[in-house]
Amino acid sequence: MKKIVFNNNNLTNSDIELKVTRVKGLLINSKGKILLAHNNNTYQFPGGHLEENEDMKGCLTREIREETGIDINISEAPFLCITTYDDNYFGSGKCVLNSIYYFRILTDKLPDFSKTHYDELELATDFNLFYVNFSDLDSFLKKSINDGTIDLSIAKEMLQVVNVYNEIYGGKK
Questions:
Q1: Distance between CA 155 and CA 149 in Å, rounded?
Q2: Mean pLDDT, contiguous 10-residue spans, the chain (173 residues)
Q3: Are 39 and 127 a contacting pair, CB within 8 Å?
Q4: What does residue 169 show for φ and ψ, rounded to 5 degrees?
Q5: Which end of the chain is more exposed for a tag (fewer CB within 10 A), N or C?
């Protein structure tokens, strides 16, 4: 697993008030399309926060089911972890160590909206799902940056994930 660490404010572990762990899935089908979510005025890979006493694979299985209605089997370990030391996590003023683990999930299962369970924010921000050709994802994200239809920090993170994915898997789905 590749690890990337961002610590622009030179925080130390003793500065950290809270640790947050999230998981994200790159759901790619046999036609080379990747499933993306759009909510809260930005695009992202499906996934979410680990709950207490939950392991990463259990969390990702739950989050993917809640957001897409797809039941997945995770057979691989995460291929990437991006860790960020943040001195003002989402404007809270708290020093947070935020780690996001990314998994490759190869599946031809389609979203089943009868099985989704969106939280209040997802419902309030018109949560949507759609497919993009994986080979076009880099240009799609760059166009979204130019159009202002994606949060810049999320876009940069997603572009890094795509680059690492291509390094590890050689562009293979």
A1: 10
A2: 95 95 97 93 92 95 95 95 93 94 97 83 76 96 92 93 94 56
A3: yes
A4: -100, 0
A5: N
